[in-house]
Amino acid sequence: MDHSIEKTDRPPYGILAVLMIGAFIAFLNNTLLNVALPSIMADLEVDASTVQWLTTGFMLVNGILIPATAFLIEKYSVRRLFLVAMCLFTIGTLVAGIAHSFPLLLAGRMLQASGSAIMMPLLMNVMLVSFPVEKRGAAMGVFGLILMAAPAIGPTLSGWIIEHYDWRMLFHFVTPIAIIVILIGFFLLKDKKEKVNIRLDIFSLLLSSIGFGGILYGFSSAGSKGWDSPYVYGTIAVGVISLVWFILRQLKMDRPMLNFKVYKYPMFALSSSITMIVNMAMFAGMLLIPIYVQTIRGISPMDAGLMMLPGALVMAFMSPITGKLFDKFGGRILAVTGLIIMTVTTYFFSQLTDETTYTYLVILNSVRMFGMSMVMMPVSTNGLNQLPARFYPHGTAMNNTLNQVAGAIGTALLVTVMSTRTETYATEIAEDAMKNLTAQPTEAVLAEMKQQIAMKAMLEGINDAFLVATGIAAVAIVLALFIKRAKQAEDPMVKKTEEKVTTKLAEN
Questions:
Q1: Torsion-angle region of residue 46: left (phi > 0), alpha (psi -120 to 50) or beta?
Q2: Is the model's pLDDT at 98 over the cut of 50?
Q3: Are residues 187 and 242 in the same domain?
Q4: Which of 235, 256, 277 is the last residue of a domain?
Q5: Local structure of 13: helix, strand or coil
Q6: Residue 30: its H or E element
Q7: Rg for the chain (alpha carbons), in Å?
Q8: Is 33:170 a contact under the CB 8 Å cutoff?
Q9: How far is Cα 457 from Cα 425, in angstroms, rounded to an integer?
Q10: Does the structure show a pLDDT above 90 at 157?
């Protein structure tokens, strides 16, 4: 990593502050969009399986680019990477803000993603090299508090903007802030990087892009095209083959683009598996809840945003507390407790009705977020703590890549469950309704019946999707039982160097 950062005893708080502001803006932009999805569906005349591409398309670009961030972090300075990332994010925000068609909006989101893909691994890596293992939990807790402020502010702010303005104002609002962050970074970030003579293996980048991109694209297309489409299983198959080829190539290289040897460390491998499973369940909830409250319940965007506020505040408040608890007790007790809470509350979300009260939804979401606050950061930090320092860029890149893949797979899977079950329920309910008719209904009555059937079917489809998410979360509980407090492993390269020095000294 950066020479100047590694050699200082005092953490580089100035650099961390600038990076956190940039990450906050990127994270805020994502949380702003969730509440806006129903409005975008109505304005641009697209369905749920299409609008999900604003989320999964973002993940697709992240999944393609994040594997290269380990190489970028090793080769370039924090300053250069940060400024490039923020410029890409800002251009994407400008494009999305002027979009009057779904393809242009999606293009803007993908440009934003190209900047965001660099931002998060960069920040995580600077934090890992800046704090010793015993203080990392508290540091990550403060980091979590700042980032969790985005979901606390985002949905409520988004709801207010959508009620009073067009959804494009969400992007217009972020643009000037992003420009200010670029200027702050340009003048305040002064770190220097010693020239590193490493080159990016283009063929590895190509295999990585086809591999992760094919898997993400295939799963994301399943919601609209169906799992039996050759388009879906064909792209997934190509993705899997390319990914296997990519992994085998990386294992043979002296300087791999993404080092899969991080999985030789058991706690990292376990933490990576748990966070992937949690992301599968979490991303889907972020998509399904706004659809339920706005489309089925008719709750205003503002109230929908306010509904998410207490949960986000709970998560933000708990973040530094969880960090300190992690330093004291380790990750297992936190992860198991949090996952049980998350699994139970996800199950209760699978029992929604058209009469579920607003207060109940607020409390249930808050408890779910409380559980989640005990899982993500402690589990990830525990896994990264076991890695030798030179593996940090690869560990953070690996985590971020696979979390994007898992989130996209989870979103696509659960949106597909929702869509297919909605169609099945709609057919069944319509058949039952027609059997009970005693006379030919008028056009007005028929139109009302269709709307009621569609809403009832969608509600049952959402419930089934949450039930599948409950099963996914339950798997993570079993894995969390095997978590042990991680200690930093000895670097094999450092050990070999020390052995050579010892041998030479003995000979002399």
A1: beta
A2: yes
A3: no
A4: 256
A5: helix
A6: helix 13-44
A7: 24
A8: yes
A9: 5
A10: no
